[in-house]
Amino acid sequence: MKLGRNDPCHCGSGQKYKKCCLDKDQAQRAAQFAAEAAERRAATVENTQERHPDGPAAHARVPGGTKPKLPTGPTPTPIRRRAV
Description:
The protein is mainly α. The chain contains two helices and no strands.
């Protein structure tokens, strides 16, 4: 069961959870998510380097050294409605 903000705190202080341990628990969860994200990024970089020995950006190179340009043209005018 999920602990609500207005429920008594799980540490036994007798205060509401939002006044006692909510901030500490949120900081702990944020640190845990950040550590997991860093592990996933490191694993992704390792996998990319195994597949592309020249570096992670080697597979993203475009012949000619430039990115393809998107077509440009006149911008459409907005549709205006008559007042009734």
